[in-house]
UniProtKB/TrEMBL annotation:
The chain crosses the membrane at residues 23-49, 70-92, 98-124. It comes from the Archaea. Keywords: Cell membrane, Membrane, Transmembrane, Transmembrane helix. GO terms for cellular component: plasma membrane. Residues 187-270 form the Mechanosensitive ion channel MscS C-terminal domain. This is Mechanosensitive ion channel family protein. GO terms for molecular function: mechanosensitive monoatomic ion channel activity. Its main location: membrane. InterPro entries: LSM_dom_sf (IPR010920), MS_channel_C (IPR049278), MscS_archaea/bacteria_type (IPR045275), MscS_beta-dom_sf (IPR023408), MscS_channel_2nd (IPR006685), MscS_channel_C_sf (IPR011066), MscS_channel_TM-2 (IPR011014).
Length: 293
């Protein structure tokens, strides 16, 4: 057996120093290459992608994830090129094997996250659901501010920010009141049983026709829809144009107030439920002495 040489040319210490020097040189090359590729990608590739998206009038719902995906590709390309230039071929192969094993393990442990990612892809690609839309689901309502690959963010009308897992929106019936060019709004008025229903229906329709922001075509309509305990329900159905831009909540409020004031002026009763107690109460004094004759 040859003696182990620690010092001198070709010794173990010399080999360690040479190996460490090569690793430091490779590490510096790796960092410089990754930095250069990343900076070039941020300066050149991202602006090109942004201009291409604007030129094609891509909706913000698709544009924001596209920019994020482009940045992720730039980072991936920076590391891949840096590994190749620095000569870390064997290290890259080992890292790929480790990454594959980690991906498999994480996949089993993170099924909900993967489900949200898949749901996010479907939401982003859905042209009927986009940033700026008013949505309603499971008793919640608000305006979509952002759709990412894992979660969506919805701003409520109380200016609260809700972070919603994408799987919840993808697997739930979502209402979009402003998706179409027109929107029909129903409202039920209650009038008294002794009132003239035809007169009340005429008043409700006339007030709808007099409002500038309620459409004449389709025309407003009314129907008797219920016989409640204290009133007869008359449902008014009217249409507004461009609900995404118009304040149809204000239109509804103004219309309901106008009908109420008109009914008051024409003595049309709008009763409210109340309870009436009947009978008598006898009070007996305990321990009272009967009066003497």
């Amino acid at each position: 057996m040859l003696p182990l040489q620690l010092f001198g040319p070709g010794g173990v210490l010399d080999q360690l120093v040479a190996g460490a020097g090569r690793f430091v040189a490779q590490a510096i090359t790796f960092l410089l290459t990754a930095a250069v590729v990343y900076v070039v990608g941020r300066i050149v590739v991202l602006p090109l992608v942004s201009r291409a998206l604007r030129a094609r009038n891509v909706e913000p719902t698709l544009a924001k994830p596209a920019r994020k995906a482009t940045l992720a590709l730039v980072v991936f390309a920076a590391f891949a090129v840096a590994f190749a230039v620095a000569g870390f071929g064997n290290l890259l192969t080992s890292l790929a094997t480790i990454a594959a094993a980690l991906t498999l393990a994480i996949g089993f442990a993170s099924q909900d996250i993967i489900g949200n990612l898949v749901s996010g892809v479907f939401l982003i690609s859905d042209p009927k659901l986009k940033i700026g839309d008013w949505v309603e689901w499971d008793g919640n309502a608000g305006v979509i501010e952002d759709i990412s690959f894992r979660v969506s963010r919805v701003r409520t009308f109380n200016n609260e920010l809700i972070t919603v897992p994408n799987s919840e929106l993808a697997n739930t019936a979502v209402t979009n009141p402003v998706a179409k060019d027109t929107l029909r709004i129903p409202f039920t008025f209650g009038v008294g049983y002794d009132d003239d229903l035809d007169h009340a229906k005429a008043v409700i329709v006339e007030e709808a026709e007099q409002h500038d922001e309620i459409l004449d075509e389709p025309a407003p309509s009314v129907r008797v829809t219920e016989l409640a305990d204290s009133y007869v329900g008359i449902q008014s159905r009217f249409w507004v144009e461009d609900p995404a831009r118009s304040d149809f909540v204000r239109v509804k409020s103004e219309y309901v107030q106008a009908v109420k004031e008109r009914c008051d002026a024409e003595a049309i009763d709008m009763p409210y439920p109340y309870s009436e107690l009947t009978g008598s109460i006898e009070v007996e004094r305990v321990g009272a002495t009967p009066a003497n004759d």
